[in-house]
Write a structure and sequence with these properties.
341 residues; Nucleotidyltransferase, domain 5; 2 domains; 10 strands; globular; binds 5'-O-[(R)-(carboxyoxy)(hydroxy)phosphoryl]adenosine; binds zinc ion
Length: 341
């Protein structure tokens, strides 16, 4: 089944064609870099307008670059839950229109579920059940993935998401946006032991995360120096800050995996592109005899191929939306009750 995926929940206008939830025939992503550079972040109104300008082109490119035509599309999958309301509306309006005109089924997806499928799309061998750490700009979640489309929440962030912490510290240090890739690059040249930054909730009994205290600690440690115009050891700050986040993410994920009796870990979302996070997870996987999987780099950040893959899995289960499909900006991921509770 050929599924057209559409993703417009934040600042990437994306469309992709995926066959049978497995083979990516095309994946087109229009990023809004000029806006990010100019304003140092996402401006919802501007992002939504840009989606409206780009969506037709991006869908056309996804279809033609795969050597297909509109008639070949057998279903439409679109991100309808979680994201910026104006942005989501552009994707959902396009998806509903195409579904109506082409007379093909429509399915609305939760953005986070897309990230879970990004890893499955890259690594079809990931066993069920497995542990999934979803780390993006909006989320830090530990999920027990019981099966396709069946999730239990084990822990999540109580305040900032890991990617948000990267972005805010990069903004504070005035080194660019989004912060994750910039800090990742700088950290490579720095000493990760230069500063002993706090590891929030590392030893707490629960599987929740908290990154806002770490962010405040870093800001308080350097704000006077910045005001005084002092040159900061940016590489060392980046490496030490990244190490604190990686340490917490890996330690708690390993604990969750062990507690749940699982043997495989999938790490997804924008932050899963982080080189140090991948390195530490791989080492830990070897030490603990666990399989560790990541999406290919092009599928770590937001893209429509992951939405098409998630859409295919739901269509197999008969989850079909009608033309009343609406957007829900703050919808939580649909979960099963945690059996360990
Ligand atoms: O998944 P995503 O594209 O969007 C959301 O759903 O939020 O993730 C974007 C986040 C940003 O916070 C960005 O700084 C972070 O992913 N990110 C990274 C890296 N690449 C992207 N964080 C750390 N290291 C990276 N290499
Ligand atoms: Zn995302």
């Amino acid at each position: 089944m050929l599924v057209l995926g559409i993703e417009t929940s934040c600042d990437e206008t994306s469309a992709a064609l995926v066959a049978d939830g497995k083979v990516i025939l095309s994946s087109i992503i229009a990023t809004q870099m000029e806006m990010l550079k100019k304003y140092g972040g996402v401006v919802p109104e501007i992002a939504a307008r840009r989606h409206a300008e780009m969506i037709g082109y991006v869908i056309h490119e996804a279809i033609t670059s795969a050597g297909k035509t509109l008639k070949d599309i057998e279903a439409i999958a679109v991100t309808s839950r979680q994201g910026l309301v104006g942005c989501l509306l552009v994707g959902v309006a396009a998806a509903k229109t195409l579904s109506y005109v082409l007379k093909v089924p429509l399915v609305g997806l939760h953005h986070i579920e897309g990230h879970i499928f990004a890893s499955l799309l890259s690594n079809p061998q990931i066993p069920m059940p497995h542990l999934c750490l979803t780390v993006s700009g909006g989320h830090t979640m530990l999920l027990h993935v019981r099966d396709y489309c069946r999730y239990e929440l084990l822990g999540s962030t109580l305040d900032d998401a890991a990617g948000e912490a990267f972005d805010k510290i990069a903004k504070f240090l005035d080194i660019g946006f989004p912060g994750g890739p910039v800090i990742d690059r700088l950290a490579k040249e720095g000493n990760r032991k230069a500063f002993n930054f706090p590891r929030p909730l590392l030893r707490a009994q629960n599987l929740d995360f908290s990154f806002s205290g770490l962010k405040t600690f870093v800001i308080n440690a350097f704000k006077d120096k910045i005001s005084a115009g002092e040159k900061l050891p940016l590489e060392d700050i980046a490496a030490s800050f990244q190490e604190a986040i990686v340490d917490v993410l890996v330690t708690k994920t390993l604990r969750a995996t062990e507690e749940q009796g699982l043997t495989a870990i999938s790490v997804t979302g924008g932050v899963s592109a982080n080189r140090r996070l991948r390195e530490v997870f791989q080492e830990a996987g070897k030490r603990h005899n666990l399989e560790v999987f990541f999406p290919q780099l092009s599928l770590c950040t937001d893209n429509a191929a992951m939405i098409a893959a998630a859409g295919y899995a739901h269509l197999q289960r008969g989850d079909i939306a009608d033309l009343n499909l609406n957007v829900i900006p703050n919808a939580p991921l649909e979960l099963e009750t945690c059996q360990s509770e």
